[in-house]
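PT: before anyone asks, these are the final sequences, not the draft ones from last week. 712 residues across everything. Please model them as a single complex and drop the result in this thread when it's through.
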Amino acid sequence: MGLTAQSVRLESLKDIYEIEKKDKQYIIALAGNPNTGKSTVFNYLTGLNQHTGNWPGKTVVSARGQFKYNENEYIMVDLPGSYSLFTASKDEEVTRDFLCHGNYDAVVVVADATCLERNLNLAFQVSELTNRIILCINLIDEARKKNIIIDKEGLENELGIPLVLTSARSGQGMDELKNLIEKTAHKSTVDGAEELLYFNQDEEIREKISEDNYNYANRLKQKYVKEDINKLNRDKKIDDIITSKKFGIPIMLALLGLIFWITITGANMPSQILADILFVFQYKLDAAFISLGANDFIRGILVDGMYRSLAWVVSVMLPPMAIFFPLFTLFEDLGYLPRVAFNLDHMFKKAGAHGKMCLTMCMGFGCNAAGVIGCRIIDSPRERLIAIITNNLVPCNGRFPLIIVLSAAFFAFTGTFIDSIIPALFITLMVLMGVFATLTVSFLLSKTILKGIPSTFTLELPPYRAPQAGRIIYTSLLDRTIFVLSRAVIVAAPAGAATWLLANIYVDDMSILIHAANYLEPLGRAIGLDGFILIAFIAGFPANEIVIPVLLMAYMSTGSLTDFESISLLRQILLSNGWTALTAINVMLFSLLHWPCSTTLWTIKKETCSLKWTFAAFIIPTALAFLACFATATVYRLIL
Amino acid sequence: MKLVDVGVGKTVKVEQNSARDYLKERFLALGLTKGADVEVLRKGPKNNLTVYRIRGAMIALRNEESRLIEVL
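LR: through. Structure below.
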């Protein structure tokens, strides 16, 4: 899912084929079918934390890392998963081009021990390109669980290439792999068999080659791999329920609701504790500034502006995100996401969109910019554009907490158990609204400016794998914490300072902020919001995290409540500024639908290479947000 | 017979892959070559996707795609 801080960093956009290397440095490419655990092998060797997930297409750009072994340094390049060198979706192109033109010293082809027959095809193709190849049969622990036994010596002798059985998760066989990498990278000759593949552009010949390759793979499997049919049927039985016509979608919705419920319930207390700590510290900070004799202006910018918005972002955003993402990652590692894509494909097909859009939408939860890059897994340019333009309709890490906090503040009435259920339902409803909007926009786009029929679709349902729960929760929690904290420092603090300035510099008896809010007030009112809310959303263009802090600061600079000790005061602050249930709903809707943040837009520009489509990606959600809010406001006024 | 018409639970052999261009390559890459065994595992919601066991992997195809595979 690339739901990690690393994949969100913009440098990860670069795909480089020529890698600089020094003396005693060797470049090792990691290739393999999707979902064979390449990233796990990569992480084990390099000690890096490339995010792993149990679904094909998770790695869409190549990641790099290095390790030292016996005096030499090995630069590992983790290539996107690929079934063959001939298929050409955007992410597979990266793999093909690197394997054909890259300056690597050896290729490790990672194969799934539980699906060897299919995995060998790529190994055969790569072995035509180079003789510096190592076959790493990974997930050997999974294979053992399924009673699959591989005759390593037999297979190695027959194939004539170095082979190692590994379980990268537990580290089994990894020393042997390092050893093989060393030996292979130091080999002197490289077969220049590139022509063989490239001149055989003839479809018929290639079909014949594929057939031969696969028949050979099948023979090898018959000869050297023992399987247990009963165990093989385990996944089938689970899938008979998870992806059944009747229960597939209800189970999915129930799981989604459950995740949100756990998120809300679990986030309450840590949020309060964080807020208590951070705001006590604010008083200390305040006192320190006063005792140092700092003037009010400096103290205002630093404490009331920067520190306070930082504290808000941390206490409001961190707990829900640090709960939601580890949970989501657990499902991801289990292999559930492709099943979601499977269950929903008929809807995406009707909307003229690609079935894998489901997966890119899931990436959008983490960060829309990452989701936009993730759209590379979609082959057809038309559908990729649809997926890119609509990705923003999934609430990202910066907007999700706003929805969670507001639904908890406004739709928990009774103080009982129901209090946690209603907001959870509300959030589920909001996410479904996002999905609905995505499908509608996709439908309209594919009937108008992006005309066309849905392209072909093949989806692999990977075997379920028991996630390493402890490790996932730990790394995902850590990753999210670092992500949220760094965003708070980089974006929220400066935005807080800027907002404080605007709220405290006066022109004609009114602060600049109030001038601007008054100017936007009529527009805000028309769509059930107010001028301050619109300002907060505009201020949130660089990063959606700051919408709530900016809004609160703006309200507090004008309203009666000028300070707060706890999050429970949020509701009071908002109510005293004229909020109703409509305002809360519309702020959530607007947040869900409105324009993408600047980073996402920049990424869209980069991915589409087109100002026109970047503009479309801006204007379509924006128009949608205004329309939807106007509609709810109108209905609300008619009824009340 | 076309793969799309094969009932759930049956196993068939691929006779011909009449997809074109990109899809053909994808089919070949997945191992849908002549003589390959394909087991029909399950139909999904709205009968839109069908799950097949192809070369040991579970692959879901739409009817539009499975129509292009001739089987015996």
